[in-house]
Amino acid sequence: MDTRRAALKAEIMQSYDGPFGGWWERLLEEAPESLRRIHHMLEAIRATSVLGSSFQHLVWVAVDSVVTHLYPRGAGIHARVAIEQGASRRQVIETLEIATAASFRGVDAALSIVLQAATEAGHALPPAPAAAYRARIAEYGTAWPEEAWDMEGPGLDAKSRALLHLACAASPALADQDGMRRHAAEALRYGARVEELIETVQLAQCIATHALADGIMAMPTE
Description:
Layout: H1 3-15, H2 23-30, H3 32-47, H4 53-65, H5 72-84, H6 89-103, H7 106-120, H8 131-137, H9 158-170, H10 177-189, H11 194-204, H12 210-218
Helix pairs in contact: 1-3, 2-3, 2-12, 4-5, 4-6, 4-9, 6-9, 9-10, 9-11
């Protein structure tokens, strides 16, 4: 490794609390300027960070796990680091449930279109169409009943839950504007600061770098 690459790696390791490996190593070898840009983007978030390291990694667990992204390598790394930084296993699992809840976003849009088409075609609509199904999927991402299961460690508080919902809605994989409005307002009601909302949105966008991550790992080595 030449001195410039070594210096860049040392700079990243000094400020990053996760592992350095995989596609980062590959970028360092083949495209250090791309890695430098990713590092500087993360540094811009950290420079004004108001969320703790553990919660930052929970955000990345959430956005790595939403359907249409499904990046298990990243979700696993960030789950491990979040736990190392103080998150409970229950909080990580609840984060995965929030990602599941966000991934159901097609239901309301699809049912609205289906019901409109049925109405225009002259069909009678059933009473409360899909109400039971929608009620069941609405349970995803809500707090677990404390008395129901013997789970070690604390769960997510209401503000954290709202911020994680916001992260999923704001992620490039979903870009759900209705969800962003709803969960931003919810987080503010639960006492979130504007700076926390901004940082959550910034963290959620980081999965855009996975275009580089998967692309560089798929390239032939020679």
